[in-house]
Design goal:
- The chain is of the alpha+beta class and 296 residues long.
- The protein is 30% helix and 30% strand.
- It has helices at residues 2-18, 42-52, 65-75, 157-181, 202-213, 263-267, 275-278, 280-284; strands at 20-30, 32-33, 38-39, 56-62, 79-83, 93-99, 103-111, 130-137, 143-150, 186-191, 217-218, 227-229, 237-241, 244-248, 260-261, 273-274, 291-295.
- The strands form 4 sheets. The protein has a 6-stranded mixed β-sheet.
- Helix 4 (157-181) runs parallel beside helix 5.
- The longest helix is centred in the middle third of the chain and has 25 residues, at 157-181.
């Protein structure tokens, strides 16, 4: 009986250790947004990051990678970063922040073919590359790939056409990686700029198509928002939208799971809101909110 109890306790302990929290956060042109002339409030950002409890966080729009590395080293001991060298036309690098106590980084690379569909891509032109990391959960030795994406912005027809091509490139990269390496598990997260998602337009159809083709699940599909914008009218009221996603393979998602939005999205429950109500995380950190989900 004692042996059985011991095995049950060990199994329970491994299950807890194997559970990981993943997510994504577009940190608006960190650490200085030239468009709005706003420097990132690093104290507020570090408070938000700590509150998430994420074991792996995909991050986008990291213009100053050295400042991000320094921030994580100073404010989040036990965490490390893996960030791209390239960032497209606007220098918006992307990658991962991860908990080294639970997660081991085995390899890291970036793929430029997604920056300009139909070309080899370029480091400092077009949209952002795809950040690709091979991770291992230390407790269970389970390997999986992480992909951080930041697709073409805007709701203009040409932008939506480019995103449709980027969806297919992303699907092919993930599928080819599974076939080539034998590592079947993965998560894909980032700013997909799905401006037509909530009204089930082209972005919704395009993204859900590749999620289905990969046999995966979009844990952000339940969300009402992940970002805010001015809404096209100067009425002082900001409008919610759903641009960010966390897509997970079945091998990682042992139980059902959904994502949750933090920062100002959580604060105002994804309602239309004033700048005052949205607060400092919107004004001085990002128009996006972090979204996270616990898997396994």
């Amino acid at each position: 009986m004692k042996r059985i109890m011991g095995l049950l306790l060990l199994s329970s302990s491994l299950t807890v250790q194997a559970a990981i929290t993943i997510g994504t956060y577009n940190i608006r042109n960190f650490d200085y947004d030239e468009r709005s002339r706003v420097r990132t409030d690093k104290a507020q950002l570090s408070t938000i990051l700590k509150s998430l409890g994420a074991d792996i966080l995909s991050v986008e729009e990291v213009n100053n990678t050295k400042a991000m590395e320094d921030l994580i080293a100073a404010k989040m001991p036990g965490y490390d970063t893996a960030l791209t060298n390239c960032g497209g036309a606007h220098g918006q690098k992307l990658g991962f922040i991860f908990n080294t106590a639970k997660i081991e980084l085995l390899s890291f690379t970036e793929d430029l073919t997604i920056t300009e569909p139909g070309t080899a891509g370029a480091c400092d032109a077009g949209t952002r590359p795809l950040a690709i990391a091979l991770f291992q959960i230390k407790a269970t030795k389970q390997k999986f790939y992480g992909y951080t994406a930041h697709l073409k912005a805007s709701s203009a027809p040409e932008a939506m056409t480019k995103r449709a091509k980027q969806y297919e490139i992303l699907r092919k990269i993930v599928a080819n990686n599974v076939a080539k390496t034998g590592v079947k598990d993965f998560y894909i997260a980032g700013d997909f700029n799905t401006t037509e998602y909530l009204n089930k337009g082209a972005d919704y159809k395009g993204l859900t198509k590749i999620v289905s083709a990969l046999g995966a699940k979009d844990l952000a599909a339940n969300l009402s928002c992940s970002a805010y914008w001015w809404g096209g009218t100067d009425d002082g009221i900001e409008t919610p939208s759903l641009l960010d996603h966390v897509i997970v393979s079945p091998g990682l998602l042992k139980t059902s799971g959904t994502a949750k939005a933090g920062a100002h999205c959580q604060k105002v429950s994804c309602r239309e809101a004033s700048l005052k109500d949205l607060g400092i995380s919107y004004e001085s950190v990002s128009d996006h909110c972090p979204i996270t989900a616990t898997i396994q």
